[in-house]
Design a protein that fits this description.
The protein is an alpha/beta fold. Among the domains are: 44-241, Ribonuclease Inhibitor (Leucine-rich repeat, LRR (right-handed beta-alpha superhelix), Alpha-Beta Horseshoe); 243-396, Leucine-rich repeat, LRR (right-handed beta-alpha superhelix) (Alpha-Beta Horseshoe). 18% of the residues lie in helices and 19% in strands. The longest helix is centred in the C-terminal third of the chain and has 38 residues, at 1030-1067. The protein starts with a helix and ends with a helix. The chain crosses the membrane at residues 12-33, 1004-1028.
Amino acid sequence: MDKSHELHRRYCSLLYSYLLLLLSSILLVHVVVPKLVSGCHEEERQALLNLKHGGLRDPANRLSSWGSSSGTKDCCSWVGVGCNNTTRRVVKLDLRNANLDEYGQLVSNFSLGGKIDSSLIHLQYLTYLDLSGNDFGSMNNIAIPEFFGSFEHLEYLNISFAKFLGKIPRQLGNLSNLHTLDLGWNSFYLSVDHDLAWVSSLSSLHYLDLSLVDLSTAENWVQEINQLSVLRELHLTNCRLPKIDSPILRSFANLTATLNVLHLSYNVQLMAEPNSWLTNFSSLTHLYLSFTGLHGSMPPSIGNLTNLEVLDLSENSIYGPIPDSFGTNLCKLRILNLRLNTNISGWERYSTGSICLANSLQELYLDSNMLSSSTALFSTIGNLTSLKVLVLSKNYINGTFPRSLISNLCHLRILRLEKNSIRGMEPLPRCLSDSLEELDLSDNQLVGDLQVLLGEISNSKTLKKLYLSYNSLSGYIPYSSSSSTTGDGRILSYVLEELDLDGNKLSGHVILQNIGKFTNLVRLSISNNSLPILITEDVLSNLQRLENIDLSNNRLVWKVKSRTWLPPNITRIYLSLSQVGPNFPSWLQHHHRGISLLYMSNASISDDVPHWFWKAATGMVYLDLSDNQLRGYLPNNIGMSALYKLDISNNSLSGPIPEDFCMHENLARLDLSSNHFHGDIPDCWGKGGRNLYFIDLSNNNLLGDFPRSLGDLPYLAFLHMRNNSISGEISSTIKDVKNLVVLDLAYNKLSGVIPTWGTFGEQYLPYLRILSLRSNMIHGYIPSQISQLSSLQFLDLSYNMLSGDIPTSFGNFAAMMRVHDEPYGDLPFQCDQRGNCELMEDYVWMNLKGVELENSRNLGFMKHIDLSSNNLSGYIPEELTHLLGLHSLNLSSNSLKEGFPKKIGELKKLESLDLSKNKLSGEIPSSISNLNFLSKLNLSYNNLSGPIPTGFQLQTLNVDLSIYVGNDNLCGPPLLRKCSTNELPNNDKLGGAEKRGKEDEFEIIGLLISIALGFVVGFWGFYGFLIFKRPWRIWYYRFVDEMMDKVYVAFVVRVARLKRKFKKSAEI
C-alpha cells in the first residue's frame, strides 16, 4: 500500500513538473518573446518602405502610416500590414482598393499604381497578398512581377482588377502552398505564353480566376487545369477560349468530385453543346455558360447535376422543351437564367406542383424567349411558390395580365414584364402587399387613365420601384397622404423610390406638382411625353432625396429666376432633346459639384461654354453635350478628373485639342467629332491616362502627323480620325494596340506605304475588323501580309495611289471566308468591377452601292472590300472567290485586265459588285446568275464581250442599261444589239438565233408567271399567318410600331442636324 502510494506521489510530482515547464514555455513565448521582439523585423520594415518610396503612386495617401517617425516604426501596425503574433514576421499585405463609384467603376483616386519594388521579396513569410482594384498598367507598362513566384509560403494571391499587362510569369507555378489565385479582370493585355503548364503545379489550389485573361493561344488548357485535383472554383469568363469539342472537355475528369463553381461565360465560340461531359460533375453548385455559342435543344445532361443551385444558360440559341430531369432532379436550384434564347417550351410537363423546383427556385429569368400567354407556362410559374424574382420581359405575352399567375407567389420581390403586349393589369394579390418591391410594365400596350392603373397596384406597402414607360397612359398622377386608401383614391405607397413614366400621354401641367409629394423618390423619369412642363424654383423642392431626374424630349417651360431649382442630392440629369437653350444653363453653376452625369444633347443650346463649367464640375463622370451649337475653345486644363465619357460631338467648338486629355486617368470614351478643332493632334497619349478604348476626332480641321503615342493606349478598340488633314505615314506603333477593332483614317492626307507592321495576325492586331484608309495619298504595293489579319472583314483602300497586283493572298481573309454572319465574334466586352460585361459596340462609315452610310451596331454583319480608284493592274485573282461571306466587292477605276473570275457565282452572299472602268476582257461568266442577293452591279467601261447571262436576279438589274455601257462587244438582252451565231454559247449555237429568241420569250413569260405566283403566295403566306396566328400578329404590329418610333426619332435628329448645318452655312 505504501509502495503504491509512493509511486502515485512520484507520478503526480512529475506531472506537476511537466505542467509547470509547459506553462513556463507558454509564458516565455507569449509574454517574454514578444517583448524582446518589439515590432517587426528591420529588413521587412525596410522592404515595405522601399515599396512605398520606390516608385509607387499613392494619390490618396493611403500609406501615410508607413514611415519612420515616432510611433509608426512598428510596421505591424501600419495600414494593410499583418504580422504573426509570435514571430512578428510580416505574413499579410492587404493593399486592395475596394472603393467603387455608383457606376461600378473603381475610384481611381484611391488606386495605388506605378512600380512594385523588388525589395518586397524580403517578405519571405508572406502568406496573404492582395493588390486588387489598383492601377498598375494605365500609366506604366507594369507586368506581374516574376519575384511573386518566390513567396514560397504564400497561400492567397489576389491581383484582380489591377490592370497588369503582359504575360503571366511562369514563376507563379512555384507557389505550391497557394489555395487562392485571382488574376481575373485585368485586361486582354494580360495573357499566357502558349500554355497553362505552370498552373498544373499548384496542387493545393482551391480557387482559380483567370477571367479576361487572353487564353486564345493556350494549348491544352483543359488538361492542365484538370491536374488541380482539389480545385473548387474555376472562373474563366471572357477569356476568348477557342471552340472545343465535348471529348476534350471530358478531360476535366479529375475535377468532377471537387469542383463547385464553373464559370465559362462570354467565350463566344467555346462550344456547340455541353453534352455528356457535364454528367459526372456531381459536386457542381454553380454553372455559368452564358454567351458560349450553345445552340440546339436544352442539354439533358445538366439535369443530372443534382447539387446545382445556380444555372445560367442565357444569351445562347437554345430552343425546344426543358428536359424532364430539370423538374425532378434539380431540387436545390435557386437561380435559373434562360434569358435571350430562341424558344424555350415544354412548360406543360411542369404544370403540377409535384416538381421539386417548386420549393427551391427563387429567381427565374425567361426574358427574350418568344414565350406567349400559354396556360401551361402560367400554371407552371404559379406553382413556383418560393419565387422572389420573376422576369418575363421581351416576350409575346398579351391581353390582361392574370392575377392567378402570381396569386401563390407570396414571396415575390421583383416582377418584370416589360416589352410585351400586355393591355391591362388585374389587381395584385393581397399577399404581395408586404413583399413586392419592383414592378416593371414598361413598353407594353397599357391604355387608359393612369389613376385607374395605379389603383390596381397601390395596395403594395413595399413597392419601391415602378416602371410604366412607353405605354399609352393618360391623365395625371393622383396623390393621397395615406399609404393604403380604398376606392378611386388608392395610390402608391409613400415608400416609392423610383418612378418611370417615359413615353406616355400624361398631362404635363400638374405632373410635377403631384410627383413632388412623393418625398422618398430617388429616381424620376418622365421623358418622351411631349409635355409642356413648367420648371419653377419650388417644383421639386420636396424631393430632397432625389438623385436622378430625366426630363428628356419634353417641352420645358422655364420660369426659373434663381439657380437652386434642383434638389441638393441630385447627381444625374437627363435633358436631351428638350428646349434648354439658347443660352448655356446658368443654374449648373450652383449644382455642378455634385453632378456625375449630365446628358444634354440636342438641347437647342447656342452659346459659348463658360469656363467655370470645365473647372468646377470636378465630380463629372459622364458628360454628353453633343448635337448643339456650342462655341468657343476648350481650356488647356479641362479639370473633371473623374471623367469617364465625354461626348461633345456635332457642335461648333474650335481651337486646338488640349493635351490635358492625355492625362485623364479614368477617361475611356472621347468623342470630339464634327467640330472645328484645328492644329496638331496631341502626341502625349499614354503619359497619364491609358484607359481610352474609344477616340473619335473625325470631321475636324486637324493637321500634323499621325500620333505615334496612340500605340501606348493598350485598351484602344475604336479609333476614328476620318475627314481631317492628317499627314505623314501611318505610325508603326499602332501594331501594339492589340485590342484594336476599328481603324478609320479615311479622307486625310496620309502618305507613304501601307505598313506591314512586322508579322500580321495572331501577334499584331488580331481583332481588327474594320480598316478604312479611303481617300489618302498612300502609294506602293498592297502588302500580302494584310490577309493575315484574321478578323478583318471590312477593308477600304479606295482613292489612293496603290499600284501593282491584287495579292492572291486576299483569298485567305478568314473572317470573310465564313458564310455565317457573326454579329459579335471577337468584339471586346467592357466589364465593370462588379463583373458585369457588355459589348463595346461602335459605328463605321461605309460606301456601299455608291452611297456613304453610317452603319452602327452591326459590325459583325459587314464583309466588304473596296480597292477602287487606284492604279492596280494585273488580273482579278480567282482566290477572291474563296471569300464566301463577302457582301460587297468594288474594284472599279483601276487598270485590271484579262478575264472575269470564272467562279464569281460562288460568292452567294454578294449584294454589290462594281468592276467598272477597268480593262477586263472576255465573256461574263454564266455563274454570275447564281448571285441571288445581288442588288447593285456595274460592269461598265471595260472590254467585255459576248452574251449577257440570264437569271432572275439579273433580270431585276437589267432595267438600268448603264451597268453595261462602254462594252461595245456585249450583246443580248437587255441590250438592243443581238448576238450573232458566233457569239452565242455552245448550247445556243445548235438552235441558232431563232431558238435563242424563242427561249427569251419563254423566259419573259416564265418570269411574269413567277412574279404573279410569288406575289400571291408571298402575300397570303405572310398575311394568312397574321390572320390565324395571334402571337405572330402581335409581334408584327409591335415590330411595325417600334420601327416607326425609330424612324421618327432618326428623322427628328437628322432634321435637327440639317437645320444646324444650314444655319452654319448661312452664317458663313
